[in-house]
Every structure is written in C-alpha cells, then in structure tokens.
Design brief:
alpha+beta, SH3 type barrels, five-stranded antiparallel β-sheet, 4 helices
Length: about 160
C-alpha cells in the first residue's frame, strides 16, 4: 500500500479520470514564463541579505604595508633630496614611484607603480607632487612621502 493512502480514501486516478488526460491550458493574455523565471520561484530564500557580499569581501586579499629598513629609508631620502634639487633648479624629472594605497574597507591595501613627471617635493605636506592632474578640479596628484616604497629616476 502507498504511504499516505488508506483503504478509506478513493484512488486519485479514478477520482480525476475525467480531467487527467486534458491538454495543458495556455493563457491567451499572458505569455508563458521563461524556464529561468520559473526556476527562480523555487530558489532558496536568502534570509541573510548581504551575507554573500560580506563573505566575498572578507575573502578578498590585500597586501600588507612594507616597513622599509634604515638603509632603504636613507636611500629613499637621498633620492628625494636629489629630486628636490632638480625641481628647484627648474628641471622636472620623470620617475617611477612605487607607493602604497590604503584599502578603504579593510586593513591593508595594495602597491602601485606610476611613472610620471615630478613637479616638486612639498615638505610642508610631506608629499611628492606630480605633473598628472586628478579630479574635476584638476588638482595635481600628490603621493605622501610616508607611502613611497621606491623611487627610480627615469632618464
């Protein structure tokens, strides 16, 4: 005997025998639903909206800031002094600068290298001012000296 059917209940095949072989109804007013939309009706309910985004963000890999040693800092200072001398004399050297960009959402960030003409080194704001303009206002791009890992002058 089939589970759920008792002897007292009538056989459903007999009860619905008059309609069981009728063709499937198709509406004259509504187009048939796509298989994708039909499947979406049965997709699991997401009770924790945004959870997948949080998991994806947590899994995203960021770099840790490299803390240069004394020797690297001395070498970087010599290069910055040389660039400062060149810009004060009216020369605007081109340099490849590797610097750290802090991630806005989590601890860490990424390193980026940019090759650009240097306008000046600004000791007041502790930044290297580049020839490149950014934003709608067209302000010069500034890289904080504390974020610079490496500078290589391009001849």
């Amino acid at each position: 005997m089939t589970k759920g059917i008792t002897r007292k209940e009538p056989d459903p095949r007999e009860v619905y025998a008059d309609i069981i072989d009728l063709p499937h109804h198709e509406s004259d007013h509504h187009p048939p639903m796509s298989l994708y939309d039909r499947a979406a009706q049965f997709s699991p309910y997401s009770a924790l909206s945004g959870y997948d985004d949080l998991v994806r963000e947590e899994a995203r890999i960021v770099d840790r800031r490299i803390e240069p040693g004394e020797e690297e800092l001395e070498q970087l200072n010599r290069k910055l002094n040389r660039i400062s001398q060149l810009t004060e004399s009216g020369t605007h050297p081109t340099a490849a600068i590797t610097y750290f960009i802090q991630d806005s959402k989590k601890a860490g960030g990424r390193y980026e290298t940019i090759t650009e003409k240097i306008r000046k080194t600004d000791s007041a704001v502790q930044a290297v001012i580049l020839d490149r303009t950014v934003g709608k206002a067209g302000t010069r791009m500034a890289i904080p000296i504390g974020d610079i890992l490496e500078i290589t002058l391009v001849e």
